[in-house]
Amino acid sequence: MDARTQNPTTDTSIGDLFGQLVDDGRTLVRAEVDLYKEVALYRAGKAKTGALAMVAGGLIAYAGLIAALVGIVLGLADFVGPVLSGLIVLAVAGATGFLLIRYGAGKMAALSGDTDEKAALAVGERSA
After folding, report:
1. CA distance linking residue 54 with residue 62, whole number of Å
2. pLDDT digit string (tens) for 49-93?
């Protein structure tokens, strides 16, 4: 009689070992994903109140800006008339907004990479 047939619990084939290794790897990956998911949910829960406070503060600041602009329009109305004062405030606020948007759009272009990064990527693609 062969020694392998007498004790089947200690004898496993290479295929069985690889199968067990794959199952263990799958279990490990699931556990890691679950851990990162729980960490993200925990952090999001803690940051939720801060985000709400920031939104509320932004809305209040926006309301204050509107009130200031209305006050400027009303103050200028005594000197140049209500229509012209509204147009002056519109022109100044519009120009300021336009410049800020152009500045921000220029900075957002950095998300696609700067010229040095693009050149390095081009060299890397040529060598590959």
Report:
1. 12
2. 888 899 999 999 999 999 999 999 999 999 999 999 999 999 999
Concatenate the DSSP letters of all residues of 81-94 into one string. Answer: -HHHHHHHHHHHHH
- Tally of CA atoms within 13 A in the half-sphere of 66 that contains its CB: 6
CB 85 within 8 A of CB 98: no
CA distances from 74 to 3, 60, 67, 86, 95 (A): 101, 21, 10, 8, 20
pLDDT tens profile 24-55: 999 999 999 999 999 888 888 888 888 889 99
14: its two tokens: 């290479």
DSSP line for 35-96: HHHHHHHHHHHHHHHHHHHHHHHHHHHHHHHHHHHHHHHHHHHHHH-HHHHHHHHHHHHHHH
Structure tokens at 52: 């709400």
